Amino acid sequence: MVTGRRCFAGELDLASLTRLRDSLGSTEGVVTCEIEFDTDEFDQAYVEVRAQSELPLVCQRTLEVYRQPVSIGLRLGLMRREDEEAALPPGYEPLLVPADGMVALADLIEDELILALPLVPARPDSALVGQEESAAEEAQEDAKPNPFAVLKSLRLQ
Description:
By secondary structure, this protein is an alpha+beta fold. Helix content is 24%, strand content 32%. The radius of gyration is 26 Å and the shape is elongated.
């Protein structure tokens, strides 16, 4: 793939990504991806991965499914041995290639999507649990007369 400078582009169904599936609110949707194999000016073999999707996640604030946009763009330096990692140029992430030289592209995309998941999925426009009640309580407290208001008027005189 590297010597042939192969490029692949396509879509993967979210339902086909078995390890990612358990973290999703539903399996409806696709991942649009591009993968490019090449070597750089230092003769370092790499694979460039670009992927975009809107992952259906369960908001931990509202427990409703929402779409989390995810965009991945990274360059993975291909290595045969772990000790080659130190020689990777800056900006490269290491990818240890198995002895047979085969890289499962769908697994590679799935790994990166799993890493891109938020620790605690939360829809950006959702309120924190209890936030609505605390705002209402503050409004009620502000409406009550302050028993120390009389002291303020005495101090000013």
